[in-house]
Design brief:
Strands 3-2-1-6-9-10-11 form a seven-stranded mixed beta sheet, sandwiched between helices. Helix 2 runs parallel beside helix 3. The protein has four helices and eleven strands. The protein is an alpha/beta fold.
Length: 195
């Protein structure tokens, strides 16, 4: 089986496992993530944190993002402009959210575009070495590459439930490794880059 085929198999299996978690349990798991990561992740006042507003059965990290805001972070969320481009628009309390395609919503075009210092990255599957499988479109990989091309090196924390772990993700040359993974069981640092 090729790396691409194995990734597709893992993606399908782990997303099905995530979908099978009852909604009320996902809420409790997301609150556990906020408890584990809310103070443990290094955030200085003014740190730009990219989170996301949940779609489908993703973890609802809004409680975690709220904790970061309380600690002085500036929040932003990814907006898919076209099939290949993500920008990160500032998420300000009280600002209206608009549909942004692919089932997502976020701040409108008048919101400031920020470059994240820390990215909370949704994923389909992960392994303990920090490799991730996304949703297959490569949006985050391209966004991270663009930030690197600008001389920026955001810290990357994968957001997933324990059931999304796989033994080993087949890494390809374009894949970017995570610095840590946050699940309902805790925060697992895979390098010394954070914390």
């Amino acid at each position: 089986m090729s790396p691409k085929e194995l990734k597709a198999q893992y993606r399908n299996e782990r997303l099905a496992a995530r979908d099978a978690i009852p909604a009320d349990e996902r809420i409790e798991m997301a609150l556990a993530m906020a408890m584990h990561g809310g103070d443990a992740i290094d955030i200085e006042p003014g740190t730009v944190v990219s989170g996301f507003l949940p779609i489908r059965s993703e973890a609802d990290i809004r409680p975690l993002m709220a904790r970061f805001r309380e600690r002085g972070a500036r929040l932003c969320v990814p907006i898919i402009l076209d099939r290949s481009t993500i920008v990160f628009r500032e998420l300000v309390p009280g600002a209206p959210l608009v549909p942004c395609g692919f089932g997502t919503s976020g701040p409108g075009p008048d919101a400031a575009v920020l470059d994240p210092d820390l990215m909370l990255v949704p994923l389909s599957a992960f392994d303990r070495t920090g490799h991730r499988i996304g949703y297959g479109a490569g949006h985050y990989d391209r966004a991270i590459t663009r930030l690197h091309e600008k001389g920026l090196n955001p810290r990357l924390i994968g957001i997933a439930f324990d059931c999304q772990e796989v033994p080993s993700v087949p890494a390809e040359p374009h894949d970017v490794r995570l610095d840590a993974i946050l699940t309902e069981s805790g925060l697992n640092f895979v390098s010394e880059a954070i914390g």
